[in-house]
Specification:
four-stranded antiparallel β-sheet; seven-stranded antiparallel β-sheet; mainly beta; 57% strand; Jelly Rolls; 11 strands
């Protein structure tokens, strides 16, 4: 797994959600694909999706519940999970979670 992104445009203004518990930055690649790179502090947060997303856990430990699933699944650094378009997921950060969200 790569530890950096090269040749990207980074938005200067942070996206701040959930009273500062989630902070991310928008990345745009030369082919116009988009990702966000951020951190979620220990908390439970809920995200709605419009496009398919892949959440890549760079560091930290979390649990996620996708859509209407009853069960939570655990994720550690180096793992990822997929969320369908027009859905939602809950993420419980058990410690600070650094992530990359891949769209589309």
């Amino acid at each position: 797994m790569s530890t950096q992104f090269d040749h990207v445009s980074v938005g200067k203004k942070a996206n701040i959600y959930f009273d500062g518990m989630c902070i991310s930055y928008n990345l745009t690649f030369p082919d116009q694909t988009k990702k966000t790179l951020g951190v979620i502090l220990p908390s439970v947060v809920t995200f709605d999706t419009t496009s398919p997303e892949i959440m890549e856990i760079v560091s930290g430990k979390c649990r996620a519940r996708i859509g209407e699933a009853a069960d939570w699944d655990s994720y550690d650094a180096g793992q990822r999970f997929q969320v369908p378009a027009n859905s939602r997921f809950q993420l419980e950060a058990l410690e600070p979670v650094h992530y990359v969200c891949h769209f589309g």
